[in-house]
Amino acid sequence: MRFVFIGSGTLAVLTSRMLVERQHEVVIIERSETLIEQLREEVDAGFIHGDGTRPAILREADPEATDLLFCLTRDDQSNIIASLVARSLGYRRVVTKIEDPELEHICAELGLAGSLIPMHTVGRYLADMAEGQDIIELSDILRGDTRIFSFRANAAEALRIDALSLPESARVICVYGKDDELRFADPDLRIQEGDVVVVLTRTRSLKVLRERFGPQASDSQHGGGV
Asked: What is the distance in angstroms between the CA of the first residue and the CA of the last residue of the chain?
């Protein structure tokens, strides 16, 4: 697989190294030529010198050949702009890093379902640890080719769960509604616009799920009526 990173902070470099170790192709977009020269010694990746919010630079990174774009600069607004430009250029999947939690609902309204708030994730982890809760990593639970897929429902996906057009090897396990309210899946549960739907599936079904429920999917692909 091929992954493109905008920014070269700690999170971007760490993730890049892990992906390279797993034999994936990695490209890093960075404004600073000095940083690029330093990173060449640390990460076996391709590099593009330039501003990752600019359409010309994102085109140079080749949207059609890229499986996932990570927008991981230190500036929330730059990450949001880069994500929107990337989506307009045809990048299939985009992860948008934001540090300000107040921007999360803006990302949702803009259709940036892959928003990431690192400090929130770490904070929840530490709070659970402080309370003595048993911290279980997803990697300890998901065995073999089992995978988790999630998407934010749009108006066309405001259906009962059993009306969603899912692959045979995929099942909805829960839905997060307003204010992150958890609702466990049952066939009669109706999904509301804006809900986050969590699906348990197998690797072979991920491509179909991304095509049907990813940001670039058309409304006609999202299932039948209620």
From this structure: 37
pLDDT for 226:
27
CA distance 151 to 103: 18
CA 137 – CA 121 distance, rounded (Å): 12
List pLDDT tens digits, range 151-201: 888 877 778 888 888 888 899 988 988 777 888 888 788 898 888 888 988
Contact 86, 62 (CB under 8 A): no
Does the domain at 2-122 match CATH 3.40.50.720? Answer given as yes
Q: What is the pTM of this model?
A: 0.62
Q: Which CATH class is domain 138-221?
A: alpha beta
- Residue intervals of the chain classified under CATH 3.30.70.1450 are 138-221
Tokens for 105? Answer: 């609902």
